[in-house]
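Quick one, probably user error.
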């Protein structure tokens, strides 16, 4: 299979440009704060439930299973405004589909880091908007 060309630096360091934009997510939901809260709660639960799976799959280079975990989170990430994070998950998915093991190895730590930072962002947001 061919090698993929990454349009970003695929280091394991998540850059500040990957900060969450909750206002963007809210605008995508027609400013429905209740709906946004529900989607955040669902995504946070899903991420929390699969943290150990993500780490185990990444550490064992089980890229196909890791791809399935990340793929299932893409719609929620995009809706909520985690656009840059979703791009990394999509790049990882492409690397797996193309059987580009080098790209998979380079992206895997970034996928793990994004999983954790997204979970932290969601938790922090929920604490700030909780009644």
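Nope, works fine. Designed sequence:
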């Amino acid at each position: 299979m061919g090698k993929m060309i990454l349009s970003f630096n695929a280091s394991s360091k998540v850059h500040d440009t990957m900060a969450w934009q909750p206002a963007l997510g809210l605008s995508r939901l027609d400013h429905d704060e209740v709906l946004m809260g529900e989607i955040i709660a669902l995504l946070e639960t899903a991420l929390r439930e699969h943290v150990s799976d993500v780490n185990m799959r990444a550490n064992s280079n089980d890229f196909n299973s890791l791809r399935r975990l990340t793929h299932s989170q893409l719609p929620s990430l995009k809706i909520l405004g985690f656009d840059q994070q979703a791009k990394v998950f999509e790049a990882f998915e492409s690397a797996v589909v193309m059987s580009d093991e080098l790209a998979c190895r380079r992206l895997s730590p970034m996928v793990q880091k994004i999983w954790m930072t997204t979970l932290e962002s969601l938790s922090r947001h929920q604490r700030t908007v909780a009644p």
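The helical segments are 22-28, 33-59, 63-71, 74-80, 83-97, 101-129.
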